[in-house]
Design goal:
By secondary structure, the protein is an alpha+beta fold. The chain has one domain. 44% of the residues lie in helices and 16% in strands.
């Protein structure tokens, strides 16, 4: 004997109709559209905010480095430092740049004499400082003679606040994820 398909009872039909009607009504509702727009737009707004904050911080750090190098070199030129060493210059520059974390370990200073006979300006290295290497050697610049032309390059390696956004993506990074800020200046030793 074959069984006949069961005919839905009126109560079952009513429950199935009620459930599909509720789903249809739920899909037609529009009270969550503002939430969806917010969820879609929020990441874009946050990326713009973080990129503008990163570029503002980069500019502030760059300006502070330039100013501290200029002030330190002015004091050097005026003879305020009895012995000029790499450590003395680092200490003076770092004292004036208050927003550089661990400045003494992340800064590199190069000071070179330029021959006035050939005017050969030394080449710059590709990177600032490798923070993974041991400390660099103590350098004493010795006595500077009258009319010597000195070229100074100061480079600080800093971490990006938001490394995956905006301007930080365009900066040349080292192996440790830091970018280098460079300040250059030159001065001539005045005759005494």
């Amino acid at each position: 004997m074959t069984e006949l398909p069961s005919i839905p009872r009126p109560a079952e039909k009513r429950q199935t109709g009620r459930l599909s009607g509720q789903i249809r009504n739920w899909l037609k509702r529009e009270d969550g559209t503002a939430t969806m727009e917010f969820v879609l737009v929020l990441p874009v707004i946050m990326m713009i905010f973080m990129a503008s904050f990163e570029s503002g911080l980069l500019m502030t750090r760059s300006i502070m480095l330039e100013q501290s190098v200029d002030l330190t070199m002015r004091e050097l030129r005026l003879g305020h430092y009895p012995v000029v060493t790499n450590r003395v210059l680092k200490k003076e520059i770092c004292a004036r740049t208050i927003i550089f974390p661990d400045c003494m370990n992340n800064i590199k200073i190069q000071m070179n004499r330029v021959s006035t006979a050939t005017w050969n300006i030394p080449n710059e290295p590709d990177r600032c400082i490798n923070r993974l290497e041991p400390a660099e050697p103590v350098v004493e610049y010795g006595s500077m003679l009258d009319n010597d032309l000195m070229v100074i390059r100061v480079c600080v390696t800093l971490q990006a606040m938001f490394p995956s956004t905006g301007i930080a993506l365009q900066l040349p990074m080292d192996n440790d994820g830091g970018y280098g800020l460079v300040a250059r200046t030159a001065f001539s030793i005045e005759p005494t």
